[in-house]
Design goal:
- The chain has helices at 12-27, 90-93, 97-113, 186-189, 197-216, and strands at residues 2-10, 35-42, 45-48, 65-67, 75-77, 81-87, 128-130, 141-151, 154-162.
- The chain is globular.
- The protein has a six-stranded mixed sheet, sandwiched between helices. A three-stranded mixed sheet has the order 4-3-5, with no helix packed on it.
- β1, α1 (12-27) and β2 form a beta-alpha-beta unit.
- α3 (97-113) crosses α5 (197-216).
- It has a single domain, classed as BirA Bifunctional Protein, domain 2, CATH 3.30.930.
- By secondary structure, it is of the alpha+beta class.
- The chain starts with a strand and ends with a helix.
């Protein structure tokens, strides 16, 4: 079973500290603590993975910058982006990190399919991509990011799917440390009615839960 917690709109620093505190407490109570999935949107923030390089933070302006212990490099979070944090015990579930990432990718792809979008994996570039609806480049556009931290078999951090959001802050960074990477969202690419952010968050939770069920409950 996974306990789902819907946090609404949160400030990233507070959510980060809550995750850290949760993982620290769970490390001393692994036998009975349940796996959890936290769902949220964040107030505008740039976050840095442990591999981030300062030159990829081009012009943050007034948007806060927060360093983290997750994998990956710099990204942006803001309202209209569905964020799911995975607080799992991989040892207890006998699940490896690579398999977990594959399941998360599957959940995101299934979520996008509900909006008639074909999510794609890209070799050497974690996350999920789509072919842009407005074709002015041969490159794929990134629509979802994955950044995890695993310590002692416990996971935190998670995934972010761009639902209906202001994409301009991505222009202030090299997203994921990749200059020129095009970012997009469901509203830009979908051929259906634009979904509300809460709907994307709910759909993402359902699809991630389905993708993880064999590992978590099986």
């Amino acid at each position: 079973m996974i306990v789902i917690r819907r946090l609404g709109l949160t400030a990233y620093p507070q959510a980060l500290e809550q995750m850290r505190a949760h993982v620290a407490a769970r490390a001393g109570n692994r036998a009975t603590a349940a796996d959890e999935l936290w769902l949220t949107e964040h107030e505008p923030v740039f976050t840095l993975g442990f591999a981030s390089r300062p030159e990829h933070l081009l012009d943050p302006g007034v948007i806060p910058v927060v360093g983290t212990e997750r994998g990956g490099q710099v990204t942006y979070h803001g309202p209209g982006q569905a964020v799911a944090y995975l607080l799992l015990d991989l040892r207890r579930r006998k699940l490896g990190v690579r398999e977990l990432v594959c399941r998360l990718e599957r959940g995101i792809i299934d979520c996008l399919a509900g909006y008639r979008l074909t999510g794609l994996r890209k070799a050497g570039a974690p996350g999920i991509y789509v072919h842009p609806r407005i074709v002015d480049t041969a490159s794929l556009a990134k629509i979802a990011s994955i950044g995890l931290k695993v310590s002692g078999g416990l996971t935190w951090h998670g995934v972010a799917v761009n639902g209906c959001m202001d994409l301009h802050p991505f222009d202030r960074i090299d997203p994921c440390g990749l200059p020129g990477l095009r970012m997009t969202d469901i509203c830009t690419e979908a051929c259906t009615d634009f979904p509300a952010a809460a709907q994307v968050t709910s759909d993402l939770a359902d699809r991630l839960g389905a993708a993880l069920v064999a590992a978590i409950d099986g």
